[in-house]
Request: fold
Amino acid sequence: GGMLAMAQAEAESQGLLQQISWHHGAYQTLEDREYDVVICHAVLEWLADPERLLEKLAALVSAQGTVSLMFYNADALVLHNLIRGNFNKINNQDYSGMKGGLTPLNPVAPAWVEKTLAAHGFEVFYKSGIRVFSDYVGIKRGGNESDDEVIDMELKFSNQQPYMHIGRYVHVMCRKRVA
Reply:
């Protein structure tokens, strides 16, 4: 809905709207053809079987195509629970969110995503953490009270190790490996 309309408005402002074929919907309903760009943000972690989606993406993206994949980071959820002292969740490996809540039902580990992407013929060429520190801050002080400064710091550290790996979300861009 709203994000698609924003993307289309931006494409129109750049004179590109007619050059793009737009498709929006569940991955199971996408037409079986090759796509040059597939954007799949905040979907993987809501699926009971996320590997099926990655398999489908491998079938849909063209040989020169790009997949932008953003997912809820299970590793960051562990860190968040450690910081909050929720040791029972960690000991029980209970990382799923509550039904109707905002925490996804099946958070995924970045290492699993990258391994599974590689198994389906993809190579990751870009990786970034999203919300690498701001979700962990309890007290706003020393610059953290400024939204602009928070965004600047998030951008500064989002592509650096080890911070990219503790972001609430991880964003990867990948393409099919050239044989």
In short: The mean pLDDT is 88. The first strand starts at residue 35 and ends at 41. Residues 2-13 form the longest helix (12 residues).
